[in-house]
Amino acid sequence: MTKTINTTTEPASNADQDNCGNCGVALLGPHCHACGQPVKGLVRHFSSIVGDALDTVFDFDTRIVRTIGPLFAKPGYITREYFAGRRVRYVSPVRLFFFLCILVFFVAQVTTDDPTLDLGNGNNAIASATTVGDVERKRDAQLANLAKSKQEMAGTAAAVGIPGIEAGEQSVRETAAARIKQVQEAKAKGLPPPEPMEDDLDLRFGGGERWHVEKNPIDTWLPAFADQWLNEQVERGDHNIGRLNQDPAAFKNAVLSAVPTTLFVLVPIFALMLKLAYVFKRRLYMEHLIVALHSHAFLCLDLLLVLLVRALAQWLAPGEGALATLLSWIEGLLLAWMPIYLLVMQKRVYAQGWPVTLLKYCVLGTCYTILLSFAIISSMAIGLVAM
Predict the structure, then answer these.
(1) Region class of 192: left (phi > 0), else alpha (psi between -120 and 50), else beta
(2) Entry pTM
(3) Number of Cβ atoms within 10 Å of the Cβ of 364
(4) In this model, does residue 215 exceed pLDDT 90?
């Protein structure tokens, strides 16, 4: 039998290998159509392997241009194109979300200023005050620092840390109130000012007394070794809060490093929420996952533009003026575009009436915001303990 070589359809890369090395079937492309084995293996020049790896990770070419524009300006367009089967012309949803998520939080690390913090052990100044007036002055100073931190975080990627700042404000008020009570009781009894309050975290499990690793440790129904582990984690977090006061940048880095991982976890959860909200649409879970990936990719892209506009304003228009006003308006429009975009996208993708879409949008938005807040706070707490 004479073997016939099809020189018209065989790719140039396969000129020296006409048949699959695994099953012997004639090759018609970079993969065997019979068994699926790729033509290229690892037994080749290392530079070729590195090139393929880089191409796999950063293979956006012209597709990134065709994807970014509609992703930002046409709510739901990329998703509907994907569902219609026109996928090869656009960047895949997973790669798009991964790339934009990592990029936006890298830019946030570079462009976001380090906040001024006074958390946890920073309450020592209040705890050591000896008069009511001194307590009040130190309390007000710390609250002012925390308010400044919230203002610096507002509108940036670090805004997810605002709930932690608000918890710090509550801790300052409680510490100040407890110290004022101590000072007043000592004065009423004619005693000298009391010793400084302990500087542990102001945690009260089950509404009981203030937590202390030795005097009032965590004691649950769990085995003794589990309670010991919990107390060790709380003690480590207490110690690390003191480090944050010395290095405010560590707090910003902890917040920003926690967000990407949290988003990767929340995307499939948000897809499940969409599945429940549109259960009668009989769509596959993977379709809702595509919607979730494109939604989060847009949020990352919009936030990236907000950060770039803010950095541009700090560079070109640090004061007041027409340019500063223009950039401020652009930033405001970008922030306003987020909820509008998501609403229009939900309407176009699922094709339901406006009343039903608005109702589901508000319910999903509320539930997801609460979930995101808890997830971010949990991630920050884990990061604080692991420092």
Answers:
(1) beta
(2) 0.65
(3) 18
(4) no
Q: How many Å apart are CA 129 and CA 60, to the nearest integer?
A: 60
Please check whether residue 104 is in contact with residue 307, taking contact to mean a CB–CB distance below 8 angstroms: yes
- Distances in whole angstroms, Cα of residue 8 to Cα of each of 11, 27, 33, 85, 314: 8, 12, 17, 29, 59
User: In the chain, how many H helices and how many E strands?
Assistant: 12, 0
CA trace torsion 71, 75, 76, 79 (10° rounding): 0
User: Of 153-162, 167-176, 214-223, where does mean pLDDT reach its minimum?
Assistant: 153-162
Distance, CA of 217 to CA of 137 (rounded, Å)? 32
Find the mean pLDDT for residues 149-173: 65
- To the nearest 10 degrees (0 to 180), the angle between helices 354-386 and 224-246 is 90
Q: Mind listing the pLDDT tens digit for each residue in 285-339?
A: 999 999 999 999 999 999 999 999 989 988 888 878 888 899 999 999 999 999 9
Q: What is the largest CA-CA distance in the chain?
A: 114
Give the angle subtended at the CA of 195 by the CAs of 175 and 211, to the nearest 5°.
45
Radius of gyration of the chain (CA): 29
Q: pLDDT tens for residues 36-66? A: 788 776 566 666 666 666 565 555 556 888 8
Alpha-carbon distance of 251 to 160, in angstroms, equals 12
Q: What is the mean pLDDT of residues 117-142?
A: 70
User: Under a CB-based contact definition with an 8 Å cutoff, are residues 293 and 96 in contact?
Assistant: yes
Note the pLDDT tens digit of each residue in 253-287: 766 777 788 888 899 999 999 999 999 888 899 99
Which DSSP letter does residue 42 get?
A: S
Q: Of 145, 167, 383, 94, nearest to 256 (Cα)? A: 383
| Residue 189 C-alpha from the chain's centroid | 52
- First-to-last alpha carbon distance for the chain, in angstroms, is 70
